Amino acid sequence: MERLRRLKMKQELRDMLQETVLRRQSLIMPLFVVHGTSVHDPIASMPGVFHVSVDRLIREVKGLKETGVKGILLFGIPRSKDEHGSEAIAEDGIIQQAIRAVKEAVPEMVVITDVCLCEYTSNGHCGVVENGVILNDPTRERLAEMAASHANAGADMVAPSDMMDGTVASIRAALDQAGYENLPIMSYSAKFASALYGPFREAAQSSPAFGDRKSHQLNGANTRDAMRALERCAAEGADILMVKPALPYLDIIARARQMFNLPLAAYQVSGEYAMIKAAAEKGYIDEERVILESLLAIRRAGADLIITYFAKQIVNRL
Ligand code: PBG
Ligand code: ZN
Q1: Among 27, 169, 170, 285, which residue carries the largest CB count within 10 Å?
Q2: Could you report the per-residue pLDDT of 230-245, keeping only the tens digit for each?
Q3: Which atom of ligand 1 is nearest to 197's Cα?
Q4: pTM exceeding 0.90
Q5: pLDDT exceeds 90 at position 20
Q6: Is 103 designated active site?
Q7: With b meaning 16 or more CB within 10 Å and e meaning fewer, what string describes 54-85?
Q8: How far apart are the first and last CA of the chain?
Q9: 119 SS3 class
C-alpha cells in the first residue's frame, strides 16, 4: 500500500523533505518617505507601517540591514502635488533626498525606487492627463526622466509601475544614454486593476480624482492579456518581471515562471497586508503562521523575490 504517512512521522524528516524554502534575501521591504524630520507617523490603513522622514528612514534601513533584508522599495510622498507631478523629477525631491541619504548611510542596501506619477500628481493619475485621458507617450518620456533622476541620486534599480506601453524601453534608453547601462529595471509587468491597492492609496494619497486605472492596469479575469504584458516588458528590456497583487494571482505567477527565464518578483500588496493584520487583530487567525503560509505560497508559485510589508516583521523567523 502506498503510505505517504511514512515520511511524515518525524519532524526532522519532514524538515529534510521540505521542497520550498523562504529565504531572507528574497524579501523586499516597501517604505514611504515624507518631508520633515523625526516623522514616524502610523498609516491608519496599514497597521505597523509608517510615513517616515529621511532621518527616520536611515534608522529603519540600518535595522533592516542588520536583520538580513537586502532590498527596499522606496515611495516618496511629495510636499505638494500638482498637475504635472513636478516633484517626481526635482533634484531635491523627497525620493531623490531619500536615495542619496540611504546610499550614504547604508551603501550595501539595494535601493529600488517606484517610478510612477500617481504619488505626485494632483489628479492622482499615473501619467500626463489631457481631456481626462492618460497620454501614453508623453507619460513614458516623463517617467524616463524620473528614472534617470533616481539613477543620478544613486538608486540601484528602478521599478516602473505605470503600465503604459513602451515605458520600459524609454527608461532603458534614458538610463543607457546617461551612462547607467548596468542599472537594472524591475518592471511591474502584470499589474492588475485591483481593489487591494486601497490602503496604499490612502497612504500615498494617490487615489485618482476621477475615473480609475482600468485604461492601463489589467483586468483580473484575463490571463492571456497578462502574459502579453509580461512578454512586452521582457521584449522592451526589463531585467526582472513582476506580478501584482500576489496571492489572488498565484496562477499568473506560476505561468510567468514557466514562460520566462527572467527573475520574477511578486508584490504582496497593501490590501493583502491589511487583511491579514485585521483578521489577526480580531483574533480570527494566527498572524505569524498566516504570514509565513502566504509568503511560502507565493514562493512555491515561482516568485524569486517577494515585495512585502511583512518583510521587517517576519525576516527574523526565516
Ligand atoms: C503606483 C503604485 C501603486 C502600488 C504600487 N505602486 C498603487 C496603484 O497602482 O494605485 C500599490 C502597492 C500596494 O497596494 O501595496 N502606481
Ligand atoms: Zn501609478
Answers
A1: 27
A2: 999 999 999 999 999 9
A3: 14
A4: yes
A5: yes
A6: no
A7: bebbbebbeebeebebbbbbbbbbbeebeeeb
A8: 36
A9: coil
